[in-house]
Design brief:
The protein has 259 residues and is an alpha/beta fold. The protein is built from 10 helices and 11 strands. A 7-stranded mixed sheet has the order 4-3-1-8-9-11-10, sandwiched between helices. A two-stranded antiparallel ribbon has the order 2-5. Helix 1 crosses helix 3.
Length: 259
Amino acid sequence: MTIVLLPPSESKVSPESGPKLNLDDIAFAELSGKRSETIAGLIKLSSGSKTKALSALGISKKQEFELVRNQNLQDAPTAPAWQIYSGVLFEALDAGSLTAAQLKNLCALTYVQSALFGLVSFADLIPAYRLSGDSVLPKIGSLPKFWGSACTELLTQEHGLIIDLRSGTYVKLGPLPVESNSVVPKILQRMKSGPPKVVSHHNKATKGRILRAIAQSKSKLKSIDDLARIITELGADVEIKTPAKVAGHVVLEVVVDVL
């Protein structure tokens, strides 16, 4: 089965109602123990010195509400992950406007690489939180070191195509297995002069539109060629670049026009 890996967003929506967090119901039960550790560590950090917590989480005094969110992680309402994450990629995806069948398809194939939960399914019920992939938690330390091998091991068990749309920070939390059937789309924007370049906003928006097109596709996506066709139909130029090294991953170079 094909799966898509997404980065989370720094911005999140707090649901007004919903059940409390239940780690037993989140995908990849193998990560439950590590999830309990990160949750406890984040609650402790956010409940201590405000100055220390703000610095550790990379946020300002205007964002102190994020500390309150973190303090209440175990009692806060939850909602499906696709409703929690916001930001450019998720706005372009606009999952809420998909048909029921398309949303079901989207949730079946999409996983978010979370600094707090490791890998979570788009359908998993989670609360809003603030923790970035490059943060350091007391007693836990570096999150890439904490999550990396465990998440990579889970990806090793995936035998279908893995489409990696994660940003560099979140790739480190679960590097692709060397032997995996995977592809990494690289989004470039065509400039008015000079070669195409990576532009953050358009990179995220294009990834959202690609995932939306995958969810809406009437035919199953099984290969890199299938993915290239879907992206081409969005109006982008696509080139498949095979790795120079044996251990490398296929790169799908996607060039989009200036918006």
